[in-house]
Design a protein that fits this description.
Elements lengths: L12 H4 L3 E4 L16 H5 L1 H13 L1 H10 L2 H24 L2 E4 L3 E6 L5 E6 L3 E8 L1 H6 L1 E8 L6 E7 H15 L4 H7 L5 E5 L2 H9 L2 H21 L2 H26 L3 E5 L2 E6 L4 E6 L4 E8 L8 E8 L6 E7 H11 L30 E4 L3 E6 L4 E7 L3 E7 L2 H5 L2 E8 L4 E8 H21 L5 H24 L6
Antiparallel strand pairs: 1-4, 2-3, 3-4, 5-6, 5-11, 6-7, 8-9, 9-10, 10-11, 12-13, 12-17, 13-14, 15-16, 16-17, 18-19, 19-20
Length: 486
């Protein structure tokens, strides 16, 4: 048995029409083209060297044989030719790369021999992130990464000056929000208000209390002794122990460095995430494109009341909103992302019937479902609880599945599909309850989409601010008794 609900037009439009178009046409006259930062050739000059290094790694024996045949003079001459050639390649690739912002798109022209122009439609831009790797921070430059509807990966402009990157980011977001071209450059970067800053001590402690960390360390401790008992070979033990220990340490340290000084702020163009110790990243989450919010609660975090907040965002690869935070703060942030939504309490989640234990022994207790006026909520997991919240307006389709074993015990699963190509499942529901939930959720979805507001958050925030300012001025004039002049 299955039933579907019509898809919202704005969620899958990027799949029907490509967000990027490539051509070899020259730019229109009157469009001001810009170049990347002059430090960019240093980055691109490494391309020929990378090709040689890749060949050497792919076929080390052949590379070693070829290298032994070269005399010192030949090797020095090769280096003397390779370095200028790489530098020339980097310079030419930079010289022939331009970008321009037109009335309707961001246009990027690249190519030495074969010219290629990428057209990125402004209305398809969902988020613009600024990343500053360690060496880029030293040089005072940054990368600009764009999340575009319908694109499999982020488009990138590297490198730009830090001020130029921030200015271009503000202009693109303003244009994507609907501002006129002549005013978009004057809008500037939208002001941000800090909501949450996660202390480094909390991040470090939360990583130590994750089961994956202890699992990696336990594997690194147990496997080498077993290999020694089986082989009595020191090299075999070292060959296994070094990657295991290094992987466990590198994974935890890398996650700590990436989440260091995690700051969540609110601005008219969405929620901003600033994070990173060595590589500093500035990301934007457009709330109107959030399809699902997940509250994750690992077992060892429960005593401290910590949770992690994750997102499924249409057209964006950003997934973590808060790496760790007290539940009260996390629920307040969820209310910012999904206005009017209250996170259901555990007692409000309906558990599966007891007969479901014959379908999923023990773990059936971890499942729960709740449907409110605003969201569809489903929880699963005993040791690692995950509560998924899907706004009714973001539901693309609803499905009911029931295999032979589930049918024998009169239970079924209800699946809710979202615009981010993700699915949230209410597992092990009573068969009659699941059938009613299927039709009820379809009605909720249609009603939610009719009530949904547009996703242009900067425009809405600016209009709201202007309206509020107008009301304040009117109230002030009323109090002063001065009539308004036409």
């Amino acid at each position: 048995m299955a039933s579907g609900d019509g898809a919202a037009p704005d969620e899958h439009a990027g799949k029907e029409h490509s967000a990027r178009e490539h051509s070899a046409k020259e730019p229109a006259a009157g469009v001001a083209e810009r170049r990347l930062h002059p430090v960019t050739p240093l980055r691109r000059a490494w391309a020929p060297v990378t090709v040689l290094a890749g060949w050497a790694v792919h076929d080390p024996d052949q590379a070693q044989r070829q290298l032994t045949r070269l005399t010192t003079t030949t090797l020095l001459l090769g280096i003397a030719v390779l370095i200028p050639a790489a530098a020339l390649y980097g310079f030419l690739s930079w010289w022939f790369t331009h970008y321009a912002v037109t009335d309707s798109e961001l246009r990027i022209r690249t190519g030495l021999l074969f010219r290629r122009t990428a057209h990125i439609r402004l209305e398809r831009i969902q988020a613009v992130d600024v990343t500053r790797p360690l060496l880029a921070r030293v040089a005072g430059v940054a990368k600009l990464k764009l999340d575009v509807i319908g694109a499999d990966k982020k488009d990138e402009l590297a490198f730009l000056g830090e001020d130029d990157a921030r200015a271009l980011r503000a202009e693109l977001l303003a244009r994507a929000a609907g501002f006129a071209p002549e005013t978009a450059q004057e809008v500037g970067e939208a002001p941000a208000r800090e909501l949450v800053r996660v202390p480094a001590r909390v991040i470090a402690l939360s990583l130590l209390l994750i089961g994956a960390t202890w699992g990696s360390l336990l594997t690194a401790v147990v496997v080498p002794p077993l290999l020694w008992l089986a082989t009595h070979s020191l090299w075999t033990v070292l060959a296994a122990a070094v990657p295991l220990v290094g992987g466990a340490v590198t994974s935890s340290v890398g996650r700590f460095l990436g989440a260091y000084d995690w700051t969540l702020s609110e601005s008219p163009d969405g929620l901003r995430i600033d994070r990173g110790l060595l590589d500093r990243t500035h990301e934007t989450v457009p709330p109107g494109r959030v399809q699902t919010v997940r509250i994750v609660e690992p077992l060892l975090w429960r005593r401290r009341g910590w949770v992690r907040v994750e997102l499924d965002v249409a057209g964006s690869s950003n997934s973590v909103l808060l790496p760790v935070a007290p539940r009260e703060i996390a629920e307040a942030v969820v209310a910012r992302v999904l206005p009017g939504v209250t996170v259901p309490e555990d007692a409000a989640l309906a558990r599966p019937p007891r007969r479901a234990r014959w379908c999923v022994p023990v773990w059936w207790r971890g499942h729960g479902t709740a449907v409110t006026d605003t969201v569809f909520a489903a929880r699963h997991g005993l040791l690692r609880r995950r509560l998924a919240l899907v706004p009714h307006a973001k539901v693309q389709s609803v499905r009911l599945t029931q295999g032979p074993w589930l049918r024998a015990w009169r239970v079924a699963d209800v699946h809710v599909d979202t615009g981010a190509n993700k699915t949230v499942t209410a597992r092990l529901r009573d068969a009659d309850e699941a059938a009613g939930l299927l039709h009820t959720q379809a009605d909720h979805s249609r009603t939610g989409r009719h009530r949904a507001t547009p996703d242009r958050w900067m425009t809405k925030a600016t209009s709201a601010a202007a309206t509020q300012q107008g009301h304040s001025e009117t109230a002030q004039q009323s109090r002063s008794g001065t009539p308004e002049r036409g």
